[in-house]
Hints:
Elements: H1 3-7, E1 9-10, E2 27-28, H2 39-56, E3 68-73, E4 78-83, E5 94-96, E6 99-102, H3 104-112, E7 116-119, E8 125-126, H4 128-136, H5 145-156, E9 160-163, E10 167-169, E11 173-174, H6 178-181, H7 184-223, H8 239-245, E12 257-258, E13 262-264, E14 267-270, E15 286-288
Parallel strand pairs: 3-7
Antiparallel strand pairs: 1-2, 3-4, 4-6, 5-6, 7-8, 9-14, 10-13, 11-12, 14-15
Helix pairs in contact: 3-4, 3-5
Amino acid sequence: MDADIEEGFADYATLKQKKRKGKDISWQGQKDFEPDESITQHEKLQASHDAMFEALTEKRLVSTKGISKGVFDRDAQLVLVRAPRGNYFQSIGRSVKGTLTLYLEEACFLMNVGQLQIEDYEGNSISFRDLYVAVLNSADGWSSFERYQTYAYLKRLGYHVIRSDAILPISHNVNHHPLTWMFPITAIAIKYTISTVRSMIDRMKKMWHIGCRTKLLWVWQRDHTVHPLLPRIQSHFNYASIFSALRIIPSSQSPYVPSTRLHVIDYDVHKPLPTWKKTNPGQPTYRVSVCR
């Protein structure tokens, strides 16, 4: 496929015509669709637009030879596969008492790709919508919309995805002080204020060592009276008195301790390696925790 085809899009109007042997769907580049407000171009665009929606509404046809048959157990909210066919089951499902069993998200995925037909014990057909509603309602106590979307997305990418039983602690240390994990901005502001006050105290100490005595002597010589250094506080007439009144309150921040919160791992994700086996998957390539 050359660059022009990659930048263009399929002309769905050709799908309504009988396809000739060896002839692919025609692709129209950007130059053929430059707007010129002509009636001819409008008709072509409208025909392609209508054909696109007609193609999207076409019923998907799947050969019955490759479709597996399953029975939906409403009590256990599991699908029992009675006639497995195809390569999907090399990485999907598990054997329970000799019967291939599927979780809801696995059965939904196989139905969505046209590889599974499901009935109940009475022989009534189970549609994809019925099974999808069970997933949304978390009928098995585990499934959810977010988990199914995650599972289906990873499966379409080609990964082997299985439910995980792992519960892992958070690997990093978390400060449990309320100012840091509930109000991070407030904590930063407090730390900045403390550092500013400390720097001011250091500068005042330097002033005391360098010029406090000269300052006091100049004040006394000017009018033979000693004025308070802080006008609003009449009890401090020298820097030593001010420093003696200062108090540095140590931070009440608790030390860092390992968190007791746990990550619930929903899926173990494995790369589709040729040596991978469903019965012995080994360590997963990725562990996925679905946020809801």
